[in-house]
Structures are given as structure tokens and as C-alpha cells.
């Protein structure tokens, strides 16, 4: 599963691990992506989304109907 949130668009960040001796190696900061199923009353079916925890909070605040309507307007296949 790709580390991209379908709602917020969060993607991995990149940086360095820094050791005690100050050596640097590349690393990746992945967002907390979770696969969630929601029942969407306007579509009368369940929709599975890959969302970050921030995306889950956004769905709780705005409602699944509003978020799914925005996704459909963007052209995201559900």
C-alpha cells in the first residue's frame, strides 16, 4: 500500500538519521496511513479509503458525505 492519504494528500517526508558521531544516513518519515471502510449514505454503499489519522479526524469533523463529494469532484476513483 502506498504511503499516501487519499483525503489530505499527505506523502512521506525525507530526512536524515543522525548518529552520535554526527554521521548522516537517509531515512523516510511515513504518515500514519490506515485502511478504513466507511458507509456513504449518498452512494448507498461502503467505500474503502487509505487515510492518515489527520484524514480520519477531518472525516469526523466534516462528515463522510462531504469528503467523498470532494474526492469525486477531484476525480478519485472510489
From TrEMBL:
Keyword Ribosomal protein: yes
Keyword Acyltransferase found: no
Gene3D superfamilies with a match to the protein in the record: Ribosomal protein L28/L24
Superkingdom field: Bacteria
InterPro entries per UniProt: Ribosomal_bL28, Ribosomal_bL28/bL31-like_sf, Ribosomal_bL28_bact-type, Ribosomal_bL28_sf
SUPFAM superfamilies the UniProt entry points to: L28p-like
Pfam hit, one: Ribosomal_L28
GO cellular component term, pick one: ribosome
Keywords assigned by UniProt, alphabetized: Ribonucleoprotein, Ribosomal protein
PANTHER family: 39S RIBOSOMAL PROTEIN L28, MITOCHONDRIAL, LARGE RIBOSOMAL SUBUNIT PROTEIN BL28M
Protein family membership: Belongs to the bacterial ribosomal protein bL28 family.
Name this polypeptide is given: Large ribosomal subunit protein bL28
Source species of the chain: Brevibacterium rongguiense
Gene that encodes it: rpmB
Amino acid at each position: 500500500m502506498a504511503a499516501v492519504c487519499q483525503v489530505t494528500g499527505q506523502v512521506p517526508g525525507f530526512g536524515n538519521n543522525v548518529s552520535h558521531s554526527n554521521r548522516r544516513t537517509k531515512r523516510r518519515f511515513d504518515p500514519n496511513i490506515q485502511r478504513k471502510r466507511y458507509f456513504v449514505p449518498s452512494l448507498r454503499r461502503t467505500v474503502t479509503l487509505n487515510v492518515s489519522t489527520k484524514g480520519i479526524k477531518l472525516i469526523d469533523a466534516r462528515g463522510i458525505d462531504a469528503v467523498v463529494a470532494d474526492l469525486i469532484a477531484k476525480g478519485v476513483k472510489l
